[in-house]
Design a protein that fits this description.
The chain contains 7 helices and 12 strands. The longest helix has 18 residues.
Length: 248
């Protein structure tokens, strides 16, 4: 256990902007997650787009080659990671532990900002740099204490990390169990939208592995009666309690 004696008591979903996945396809929420424990620890899961996108999202996108895939939209100061934390009265310095689901561009924005221990799978950390987007690798791993896992790992009571390879080889999902809301599965891009399994996981590096991971999450949902939050499902995003609201 990484934080012994702590229990997860609140989950906040941070709105870090919207991304238009190609004309006419879908517009998705870019989320990050903040978990509070009963002893005052704050745990961040993912971090949206890198800080360069806050300064000039158009120039950053061109530099990364992102227009070939889509475009970041509705990206206001309050939807940067620092802005979203500030709305809760927090700064990146208040984060005591960071968890990375995987190294893609819309998840690594916290890495240049954190000064706390980082947790991710050993497979994901084996990349010399986060996999980011296409051939671009501009973000370095932060020089912080790094804890890598190779199997399910308990962070604290009510917070378990679940390796779910397929979307990337080292992808990670999260199981949160809260006092009132019960069990919630944060699938991240292991299942990035409800329709992805039926579509054959076209966004996964290894669709066969992704299907196995998704089946595992579906079975866990059914066994626990858990809520399942897909990574970027447009319809579900309309139903989520976004910060400052949250789940207890």
């Amino acid at each position: 256990m990484i934080l012994p004696g702590h229990r997860a008591v609140r989950l906040s979903i941070l709105d870090l902007g919207r991304f238009d996945v190609g004309p006419g396809k879908r517009t998705i929420l870019v989320p990050a997650f903040l978990i509070d424990t009963d002893r005052g620890a704050r745990i961040l899961i993912d971090g949206g787009f890198p800080p360069a996108y806050a300064a000039d999202p158009v120039a950053a996108a061109v530099a990364d080659g992102l227009p070939a895939f889509g475009r970041l939209i509705d990206y206001r100061p309050g939807q940067t990671l620092p802005g979203a934390l500030a709305a809760l009265g927090l700064t990146p310095g208040d984060i005591g532990l960071a968890i990375l689901s995987h190294g893609h561009i819309d998840h690594v924005g916290a890495l240049p900002l954190i000064r706390c221990p980082l947790v991710l799978t050993a497979k994901e950390r084996a990349d010399p740099r986060p996999c980011y987007f296409g051939t671009a690798r501009p973000v370095a791993w932060p020089e912080v204490e790094t804890l890598t896992i190779t199997a399910d790992a308990e962070v604290c009571d009510g917070l378990t990390l679940l390796p779910t390879p397929g979307h990337t080889p080292g992808h990670l999902s999260v199981l949160v169990t809260l006092p009132e809301s019960g069990s919630l599965i944060l699938a991240a891009d292991a299942i990035n939208r409800e329709s992805e399994p039926a579509e054959g996981f076209p966004d996964a590096e290894d669709p066969t592995e992704a299907a196995r991971s998704a089946a595992r999450l579906h079975a866990l949902r059914d066994r626990l009666g858990a809520g399942l939050f897909w990574g970027h499902d447009p319809a579900q995003a309309l139903e989520l309690r976004l910060a400052p609201d949250g789940y207890r």
